[in-house]
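Have a close read of the entry that follows and walk me through the local backbone shapes. See right below:
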Amino acid sequence: MSGSVAVGARDDTAADAGRTAAAAAAAAGVGIRLLDDMRDLAAVRALYEGIWHTGATNPPVTADLLRALVQAGGYVAGAFDDRGVGPELVGACFGFFGPPTARNLHSHIAGTLPRVRGRQLGFALKLHQRAWALRHGADTITWTYDPLIRRNAHFNLGRLAASVDAYLPRLYGALDDSINRDDETDRILVRWELRSPQVLEAAERRPRLVDAAAARAAGAVVAVQPDASDAPCVTASDAGTVLVGVPADIERLRETDPPCAADWRLAVRDVLGALLENGAIVRGFDRAGWYIVDRQERS
């Protein structure tokens, strides 16, 4: 009897997620669908090459690999803009399942064309992926992002209400593209609990917001912040709540001041990475540029 109730609840959640995802796609002005045709998958490869400027000799993914992922039961979806002459692929996302007991989909790459930013297309893609994952029995979705990019931190931790799982230094080795350049590929691993109250609220456009100024007023101490020249300034702190700042535009810094960008990478790795390794929890990210991190008392 209890098993039947659980299955019914899961089906209801998946159906609700599908309706929410469809509404988000409509609001973004796109149609989102699963992809398995080789022409569509080749278009995904070309889209990613254009976003990351990798060139045809070093694509982030190939069409044949995407086809293998689909054949193995993985997720590949594209967002199409119908506002022009014909449907144009403007965003795509793909992922694959973890071990059988994990009930987790790992989302490897999601990207949209820069010109459609502001239409909340990334939000619509993630909700589509969530609905699909729920229909296929997953409880969570994980993915990684660069902790130095403010808009990604705000999107993942605020708009989607994902939780930080770990800090992963040098995860992908060297990536030869115009976004990462020569920067080391440190990443934060996030976990999206698909049925959690905060994720349900985020899916309904009620993001998880945090306030760094309020945290400071309550006793939080700044551990990393930009100085007058936008270089990282690190201050030792044993406070229970710590603020870790990131630069306003790390991608610009990689172009204009690579040594400064590298200093930021090391500063955030040393502080935020160490905090997470020692059991601290990221409360959230203030879009003004601050991670709010709570140390946990050791028992």
Notes: Residues 212-294 form one domain. Confidence is low (pLDDT under 50) at residues 1-9. The chain is about 40% helix and 25% strand.
